[in-house]
Amino acid sequence: MLAQDEPTAPVQNPYLNDQDLYGAPSPVWGLIGDIFWFVYFLFMIWMLVDCVRKDPDRFLWFWVILIFQPFGTLIYFFVRWLPTNHIQLPEFARPLFRQRRLNELETAALQIGNAYQFVRWGDALKEAGIRQKSLDAYHEALKKEPDNLQALWGAAQIEMQIKKIEIAKSRCQKILDIDPEYKFGDVSLLFCKTLCELDTPENAREQLAKHTKRWRQPEALYILATLEVDAGDNQAARKTLQSMLLDINGSPRGIARKFVRWKSKARRLLKRLPKS
User: Fold this and answer.
1) What number of other Cβ atoms are within 10 A of residue 177's Cβ?
2) What are phi and psi of 129, to 5 degrees?
3) What is the pLDDT of residue 5?
4) Quick check: pTM over 0.70?
5) What's the pLDDT at 219?
6) DSSP of the chain, one letter per residue?
7) Which residues of the chain, if any, have pLDDT below 50?
C-alpha cells in the first residue's frame, strides 16, 4: 500500500534534446552577441574616461554611466559628450536637446550680460525658429554694442522675415557702411531684396547689377533676371540666366548641389522667355 502511494518519476522524452531533430544553437548569434558587448564595454570605458577628465559634473555622471546600464552611457553620450565636442546631431534628434542648449545660452546671457552672449542666444533662437525672442536678444546686444555686426545682421534677417523691411534695410546699410565685405555678399543681397520691396524696380535692378559683378550668387542673378523680364529686356534676362547656369555647371559637384533649386527655376524662366 505504501509503495503504491510513492510518486513516480516523470518519463522524459528521449527526443526532447535531440539536435538532429531540433537543430543545434547557431554559434554565429553567440559570436555576434559577444562582439556587441565587447564594443559596448569599450564605448562605456571611453565615456567614463571622458567624464572623469572633462565633465564639470563628473561625480554625478560617473555614477549615472556606471549604474544605469546601458542607458546611462547613451544618455551621457548624447546629452554631454556631443554638445561639448560641438558635433552636429542629425536633424531628427536636434529638437530633443535644443531646449537644454537654449536654456544654457539664456542663463549665460542674463548672468554675464555682454553683447557676445546675447548674440549667441539670439543665433540659437533664430535657428530654432523662435523669431521674436531671437530679435529681442539681438536688441539687447545692440543696446550694449550698437555697432555689433553680428547683432545687426541677425536682427536684419529676422526683421526681413517678419516684414519690418524698412528697419532691415537700415540695418543692412549700416553693416555695409562699416564692412562692405561682411558675410561675403549675403548682407548686400539682403539689402537688394529690401530695395525690391521698397524702392523702384529701376533702382533695385541697378543695385543688383552692381552686386552681381562682385558676388555671383545664383539667387541674386535670378532676381536680377526677373527684374529684367519685368522691364521688358528679355535679351538681358536670357544672358543673365545663361551665365548663371554656366557658373553652376562649372562649379564643383558639392557646391552645385546646393543650387539645384535656382538652377531649376532659371531653366523654367528661360523656357518662358520669347525665342527672339
Assistant:
1) 9
2) 85, 15
3) 55
4) no
5) 96
6) -HHHHSPPPPPPPTTTT-HHHH-PPPHHHHHHHHHHHHHHHHHHHHHHHHHHHH-TTHHHHHHHHHHSTTHHHHHHIIIIIHHHTTPPPPGGGHHHHHHHHHHHHHHHHHHH--HHHHHHHHHHHHHTT-HHHHHHHHHHHHHH-TT-HHHHHHHHHHHHHTT-HHHHHHHHHHHHHH-TTGGGGHHHHHHHHHHHHHS-HHHHHHHHHHHHHH---HHHHHHHHHHHHHTT-HHHHHHHHHHHHHHHHTS-HHHHHHTHHHHHHHHHHHHHS---
7) 1-2, 21
pLDDT at 128: 87
Single-letter amino acid code for the residue at 228: E
Residue type for 272, please? R
161-171 pLDDT, tens digit per residue, is: 999 999 999 99
**Encoded amino acid at 170, one letter:** S
Question: How far, in Å, are 81, 101, 102, 118 from residue 108 at the CA level?
Answer: 20, 11, 10, 8
Nine-digit cell at 114? Answer: 555682454
